[in-house]
């Protein structure tokens, strides 16, 4: 009996898809078709005109090319098991971003790629970070009219790079500060350079304060920047010693410029006028530009506020309270006659030349520590002792307010302070009273006085009014404080 033979399953031909596999593929295709159908329906509902892009919100953000590059690189990394990409590398790989010029043209232009200069950066590093080489650096520096200036970059400044359609460097923009920038553009044979200057909007602002311990703290409490406080001290530095003279209750009023760019404040300008009342005596200073175009500060009678010597040769902004001169000598334990004035200050506080002159000695001795002696004309010498560091050398010319050293405790000193001496014709004089015997400051010429009085009239009235308001407010506060309950 032949009987029935077992069913023989035929092997699929090479390259043929098994039935189960064809079934799975068909199932996926059906799902894809269904999803596509739903997407078409949604598009039809949202954009009847068929233009999906036309319905994009105006403020919708376009994808960042660098971020997109990072995502692609991450997917490739996951597949290959490689390291994660950095954003810097992705930015270079993505190339220059494109900016739409608007619906009128429909064209796109390359965007500036800007890098902020960090500490330790140089042009070579910045260009490499932007995807360019030393050859590009060389061509700009050596062919552009102002190319050498590009080598002087500082932390916080911005360097912008513009690429052409082929990705080659087309232009570089050096933003020096908010008001100044230089653009270098590629041209036949090298690069051109163009300096761009912006004019800020100037607004006037008032600040008033009352001294509690020092001008520096009072100025900061009144909203003045450190630079403005220092400028204020320089204005009155010939008539007030801001380390030792200020007393609690002294007042100040300052009219100054604030600089705005695109509606935002970015800095301070000049002090226009200022008033300082010290121990009941009021000093005024007004900025005035004379007929020769020279701007300086004068009091209400036209006398220059710049005196031959500063009252205090130390940066008072580092000192929060006044120094008591009555003390026993810390080394010799005796009360010795002081031939100068001691200014207690933190180590490293800048020490200024009190007037224009020439350094006649700069060295070290066991008693003086690090010291600097300055000759001013034929009759005057100033001495600065116990310095931590000297910033000038013998024979060097110095100008008033130039930093010649820093406060220290070298030599016969137990704590950081500056010992300051003033000699006239070889004889020691009291640095705090000698200014009364010095030649008077330069005054405006008689021909300038009518224009000067006219220029300061309005501001002078405003200063007087503010002083009156401050005095009345202070008197009212005292009266209220003394009133019976």
Features of this protein?
Nuclear Transport Factor 2, Chain: A, Glucose Permease (Domain IIA), 3 domains, 8 helices, 21 strands, 30% strand, disordered N terminus
CATH class of the largest domain: Alpha Beta
Question: What is the averaged pLDDT score?
Answer: 79
Output the number of helix runs. 8
Can you tell me the number of structural domains? 3
Could you tell me the CATH topology label of the largest domain.
Nuclear Transport Factor 2, Chain: A
Helix-strand makeup class: alpha+beta
Description:
The chain is an alpha+beta fold. Helix content is 25%, strand content 30%. The protein contains eight helices and 21 strands. A hairpin with a 2-residue loop joins strand 6 and strand 7 (190-197). The model is unreliable at 1-30, 40-106 and 321-337 (pLDDT under 50).
Quick synopsis:
The protein is an alpha+beta fold and 485 residues long.
Explain the layout of strands and helices.
Layout lengths: L18 H28 L18 H16 L6 H8 L3 E3 L7 E3 L2 E4 L6 H7 L4 H10 L14 E6 L5 E9 L2 E8 L2 E8 L3 E10 L4 H7 L4 H11 L14 E11 L2 E15 L2 E9 L5 E4 L41 E5 L5 E3 L4 E9 L3 E8 L3 E11 L6 E2 L4 E5 L9 E8 L2 E3 L19 H34 L3
Antiparallel strand pairs: 1-2, 3-4, 4-5, 5-6, 6-7, 8-9, 9-10, 10-11, 11-12, 13-20, 14-19, 15-16, 15-18, 16-17, 17-19, 17-20, 20-21
Cofactor: Zn(2+)
Subcellular location: Cell envelope
Main location: other
């Amino acid at each position: 009996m032949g009987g029935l033979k077992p069913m023989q399953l035929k092997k699929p031909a090479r390259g043929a898809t098994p039935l189960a596999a064809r079934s799975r593929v068909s199932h996926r295709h059906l799902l894809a078709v269904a999803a596509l159908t739903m997407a078409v329906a949604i598009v039809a509902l949202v954009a009847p005109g068929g233009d999906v892009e036309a319905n994009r919100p105006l403020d919708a953000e376009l994808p960042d090319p660098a971020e997109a590059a990072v995502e692609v690189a991450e997917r490739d990394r996951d597949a290959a098991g490689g390291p994660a990409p950095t954003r810097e590398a992705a930015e270079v790989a993505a190339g220059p971003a494109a900016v739409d010029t608007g619906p009128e043209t429909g064209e796109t232009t390359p965007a500036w790629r800007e890098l902020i200069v960090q500490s330790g950066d140089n042009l070579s590093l910045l260009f490499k970070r932007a995807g360019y080489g030393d050859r590009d650096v060389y061509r700009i520096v050596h062919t552009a009219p102002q190319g050498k200036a590009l080598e002087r970059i500082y932390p916080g400044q911005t360097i912008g790079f513009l690429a052409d359609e082929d990705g080659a460097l087309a232009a570089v923009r050096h933003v020096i500060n908010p008001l100044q920038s230089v653009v270098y553009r590629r041209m036949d044979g090298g690069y051109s350079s163009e300096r761009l200057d912006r004019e800020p909007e100037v607004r006037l602002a008032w600040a008033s304060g009352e001294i509690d311990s020092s001008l520096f703290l009072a100025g900061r409490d009144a909203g003045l920047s450190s630079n403005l406080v220092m400028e204020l001290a320089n204005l009155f530095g010939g008539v007030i010693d801001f380390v030792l003279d200020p007393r609690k209750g002294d007042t100040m009023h300052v009219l100054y410029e604030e600089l705005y760019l695109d509606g935002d404040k970015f800095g301070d300008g000049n002090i226009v006028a200022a008033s300082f009342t010290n121990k009941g005596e009021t000093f005024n200073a007004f900025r005035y530009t004379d007929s020769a175009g020279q701007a300086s500060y004068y009091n209400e009678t036209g006398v220059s506020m710049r005196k031959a010597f500063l009252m205090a040769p130390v940066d008072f902004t580092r000192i929060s309270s006044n120094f008591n001169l009555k003390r026993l000598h810390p080394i010799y334990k005796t009360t010795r006659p002081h031939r100068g004035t001691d200014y207690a200050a933190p180590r490293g506080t800048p020490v200024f030349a009190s007037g224009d002159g020439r350094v006649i000695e700069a060295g070290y001795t066991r008693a003086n520590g690090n010291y600097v002696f300055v000759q001013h004309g034929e009759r005057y010498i100033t001495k600065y002792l116990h310095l931590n560091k000297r910033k000038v050398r013998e024979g060097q010319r110095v100008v008033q307010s130039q930093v010649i050293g820093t406060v220290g405790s070298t030599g016969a000193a137990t704590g950081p302070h500056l010992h300051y001496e003033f000699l006239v014709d070889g004889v020691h004089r009291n640095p705090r009273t000698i200014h009364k015997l010095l030649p008077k400051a330069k005054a405006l010429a008689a021909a300038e006085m009518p224009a000067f009085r006219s220029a300061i009239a309005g501001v002078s009235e405003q200063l007087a009014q503010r002083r009156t308001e401050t005095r009345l407010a202070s008197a009212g506060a005292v009266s209220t404080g003394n009133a019976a309950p």
